[in-house]
Amino acid sequence: MSRANVEGFYRFVEGNEQIQSQLKAAGSKEKFLEMAVQIGQENGYTFNAETVEEYLASTQQVPDAELSEEQLEAVAGGRAKGFTFCVTKSKCWGSVC
Question: Of 1, 6, 71, 95, which sits 20 to 30 A from 39 (CA to CA)?
Fold first, then answer.
């Protein structure tokens, strides 16, 4: 399954507060993954739970890690994305943080 589809879904969810709320309400990691796959498919994004887990693992912040250029620009320029996947703070989705 395509990482690009997960990234596209991530951007899609950034702009959709209703879906953010649905994913945030998932009570477990398994339920979150199931919901992400289902909602993704309903909106034209094809991926599986394993691809979501891999994407989340790759975007997790590591203590003492350096910020990327994009992260530095967001901090310096004051750009913030209001995304309840915990995106702006910890790069994770919903209760999976």
Answer: 71
Quote the DSSP letter at residue 97: -
Closest CA to 82 of 56, 74, 59: 74
**Contact (Cβ atoms closer than 8 angstroms) between residue 45 and residue 5:** yes
Task: For 22, list phi and psi in degrees, rounded to 5.
Answer: -60, -45
Cα–Cα nearest to 37, from 5, 60, 11:
5
Give the Cα separation of 65 and 74 in Å (integer).
16
